[in-house]
Amino acid sequence: MKGYFRKRGDKWSFTIDLGRDANNKRKQKTQSGFKTKKEAQHACNKLINELMKGEYVEPSQKTVEEILLEFMTTHGKHAFRQKTYETHMYIIQKHIIPSLGHVKVPKLTPAMVQGFYLQKLQDENYSAEYVRTMHAVLRKAFNKAVKWQYINKSIIELVDPPRLEAKEIRTWTLEDATTFLEYVKGKRFYIVFLLAIYTGMRQGEILGLRWKDCHLKDGNISVTQTLSRTAKGLIFQEPKTRGSKRLISIPKHVTEELKQHKKEQNEQKILLGPAYEDYNLVACIETGKPIDARNLIRYYKRMIKESGVPDIRFHDLRHTHATIMLQLGEHPKVVSERLGHSKTNVTLDIYSHVVPDMQKSAADKFEQAMRSVNNNNIV
Asked: Does pTM top 0.85 for this prediction?
């Protein structure tokens, strides 16, 4: 197998003779657009090597749109959670297809994708985090296209997603958290706020928590499902990752509050009778149905204003739990397990703002220990 080289204008090309097909017609493979003969020779040798080893994949002439939609139909519809599927489809149809959908996959270059990201960041003012989500969608689809042998390699791997700026995490102090819980005690959604602050559970995990997952005698809670809003309405589903499915210990105070809440809920069931829809949920509206997160957030914002504590997001209650635990000297691995992070370093990366205080505390403790030994020796 041999290559033939030719210069056309200021570009070089090569042709490989592949023999003849079943109809005795000559088969050739040509590639062009190389700046120098050396570049063409290098590409030719690489292609010959792939052909000899049976590793060459003829690039598909499908467009980016066709690849993305086939990926979502064949893979995404069954592999992704409903909310994830809807988010991916929105990004594909709203952003990627209008800009890159018409391009045939072999013609797509890293520079084109990089330009697409730049347009979204600078011209349309989307956040780096959102553009990174677009990058993730493209990456998944093109990696799958490689497995399906539509392309030999994914050019998305050659594209740099925008760098994320470190986010400042806003949390409450112990005093803030106490003030807020004292204010909302006895009010609507109190149990939701209590669990968020005392366990670090995610909003969807709390709203999906069932009584059968609350082991009050043992003093712990199992996180086994989450409540999400999708285009189909509110749905229950398994936690996002294996690490999110976990067991969280709760203190006696939370156990007693849950018992009291269950008692009040049972009274409400008796009061409504058949009108009560029992989903076995810990947190629900008066009729037993799941709580719509939009209503929860509206009420939460109102309670913040009335109680006078700093305005933070509901998700920041989770950050508050983790930050306070680390400040109290709890081991990061324990905090990581409570939050459902896949690795301890994820926890440390997110809560790096707490680490300097932990370092100072550790240094002080070490100094005290050394002084104690010295004093004992002097005596």
From this structure: no
